[in-house]
Amino acid sequence: MKKLSLRAIIVLILVAALLAGLTLYLVRYTLYAERWMAFPGNPHAYSGTELAAGTVTDRGGETLLTLGEDKTYAESAAVRRATLHLLGDRSGNVASPALKRYAARLIGYDPVFGMYGAEKRVGTMELTVSADVQTTALQALDGRPGTVLVCNYRTGAILCAVSSPTFDPDGAAPEETDAVYLNRAFGAVYTPGSIFKLVTAAAALEQLPDAETRLWHCDGTCEIGGETVVCNGVHGDVTLKEALARSCNCAFAGIAQELDRESFAQSVASWNVTAPCEFDGVVTAEGRFDVADASDVDFAWACIGQHTDLVDPCAYLRFVATLAGGGTAAEPYLVERVGSYRAHPKQTEPTVQPETAATLAEYMRYAAETVYGDIAGLPVCAKSGTAEVAEGEAANANFVGFVQSEEYPLAFCITVEGGGSGSKTCAPIADTVLRACVAAMED
């Protein structure tokens, strides 16, 4: 009897182990089967180094790429150049994370039937970008290195993600390889300059009880810790609203002296200003706001957007979209659908306080009306920045903002390397690109 009991226990243990192993396999199969199938060495998935099948279109259905042994890009050279950093090149020097992420769906893999009948299920990947907006943005950059990013801040859909310089994947090999291969929209970080004053203003509104009503004084320079902070003008007494519109360094240096450094750093982190974005196989670069050991004057410069500050354009676009959305924003995404997959817009957790976001939106609208002028005939809220970089090099031009509109809820982030003034260089680009976005949304 004891032997039978022991044998029964052993059998039960073996059955339990078998069930556990089978369960683990099924879980791993459910989670990773697509990744296993899309392994580049799989001859069913790849023809040489290229995906065996599939098509990529823009938001309007225009074909951007046909995959297979005879890989074919768009007919228009302008479109090929404008979408290179999203689709990759023939040599593999420019990556396409979205193609890699959805490779199994593009080639027709099915979790039940595997590759059987895959030729009947070959997928079409519809991107959220517009080919017309992409080409318009690239033309507006006019050969200058930089990036133009635009998203729908209600849904998170990216309408434009252009990186310059670029090249035609069907043309001659580029000469300046390092500069051309980098995707500046998703893989670069920049000194923000004065666009970071939006972050500092948000901290002031949440930390200083009288931030909206008090005055800060600007004589053109101010002394902090025995060192001089230089402003772009002599502004006299200014409110926070006026200081943001005029981009007054002295006012923001004064604000920095009153902010709690640790709380400010925590806010920067909680607002996802420097956190990378992750979507559709894309992982953007991580920014930096490191002021733990900064001197008083260095902390002031950090609050102005200099010191060692770095932001990723896509992550900063998400922060601007958060202000547009009243304290929360839709996570950005690039792929609308592919195979059976459909994008489901996802809202971020509330970060910036709604009252703070609303006040900053009012301030940015005031800046657009009083400083930047009409932009695309839309109710734009904006902030420019001129970011000093290495000594002897021209400053980078930055421009961020959003449209206060239910019909055209667009947020944008523009950088032109060596462009100098953010308002003079980037505001005209914003005007041109936003007009193209409106046209694309109306189609």
Task: Describe the model.
- Helix 8 (240-246) crosses helix 13 and helix 9 crosses helix 11 (296-304).
- The longest helix is centred in the first third of the chain and has 36 residues, at 2-37.
- With 443 residues, this protein is α+β, with helices and mostly antiparallel strands.
- The protein contains 14 helices and 19 strands.
- The strands form 6 sheets. Strands 5-4-3-6-15-16 form a 6-stranded mixed sheet, with helices on one face. Strands 8-7-19-18-17 form a 5-stranded antiparallel sheet, sandwiched between helices.
Attribute tags:
five-stranded antiparallel β-sheet; 443 residues; 39% helix; six-stranded mixed β-sheet; globular; alpha+beta
Task: Measure the end-to-end span.
Answer: 80 Å
**What's the helical proportion of residues?**
25-40%
Pairing-aware structural class of the strands and helices?
A: alpha+beta
Strand order of the largest sheet: 5-4-3-6-15-16
Oligomer status: single chain
Coarse morphology: globular
Query: Over all CA atoms, what is the radius of gyration?
Result: 25 Å
Major pleated sheet:
6 strands, mixed
> Low-confidence stretches at least 5 residues in length (pLDDT < 50)?
none
Strand content: 15-25%
What is the tally of helical segments?
A: 14
Mean pLDDT, as a whole number? 88
Task: Let me know the number of strands.
Answer: 19
In short:
The protein has 443 residues and is an alpha+beta fold. It is 39% helix and 18% strand. A six-stranded mixed sheet has the order 5-4-3-6-15-16, with helices on one face. Strands 8-7-19-18-17 form a five-stranded antiparallel sheet, sandwiched between helices. The protein has a two-stranded antiparallel ribbon with strand order 1-2.
